[in-house]
Amino acid sequence: AFPSAAAAAGAPGYAGYGGAAVTEAMYTTITFTTTMRPDSLFCFALMMPHGYEKDLIHQLHQKGESLFACDGFTVLSETDIVIDPGPSARLVAEPMGSMKCEYGGPFKLALNTDVFIKAWRHIFDDGKFLKFGWTVKVDPDCVFLPSRLREEVRKYNPNDVSYLNNCDQGLHGPIEVLSLGGMQAFRDSLNICTSDKKLTDEKSTGGEDVFLRHCMTLINVKKVDNFKLLSEQACFWEDPVKNGCTSGKVSFHPFKKPDLYFKCLDQAKAQEPPASSKTTS
Length: 281
What we know:
The protein has helices spanning 5-9, 53-63, 113-126, 146-153, 180-194, 197-202, 208-218, 240-243, 258-270, and strands spanning 41-46, 72-77, 82-84, 91-92, 94-95, 102-104, 109-111, 134-138, 143-144, 162-165, 175-179, 222-225, 230-231, 251-252. It is an alpha/beta fold.
């Protein structure tokens, strides 16, 4: 059995950005039991109601790829949009309200922190994540291989209060991975982050991934570096769009057009050994 998230935290409160110390005693914990697989994944994506994302997610659902190869999944959008009418496997987005945001800051990015705070609250209120060892937010245009992520998270304890840092520049948003312990801490202390002045000020200059990584620091969720998670130009100057998806990493970004997305996915899968040659533990 794994230790509880509170015991696994093992660190004093961190004063962080706003000076309000957060300790493991503040977290409501659910210990991951031996009846749940410690490498199980709950994955979700936000889908814009207009544009390329609906068609791409529909194709991913049809093929059982990306988040649809996780152990549990959810798609969020503004309304209950029918993504796949079925009949074999009907898929409807869960409504979370408006996803509109401004663009700005020094890099002319989507200033989408409030949209994703709303999404995280939806995930917390729904509670499905509590049945899985790890929660993954993945962008629709991020080519994602859950089987590779399972291999990576087996190195860690899902009850640790932690998240996986995927980039030398700090956590980047195409894929965000939190342990069960980290998710519970995030749920219980999200209001500390949303009321912090520095994090609030950053909403006008940065995106949701900046908020998330600074929130994790503020509420004492441990950063665990794993640079096998993401290949994109903004991290380590990789460029899978130009150079291909052959690095063996968990995900590749960005691929908005379905033909380029599935070309990348095929390249990535071609790097994997046949199932018969893989060793099991």
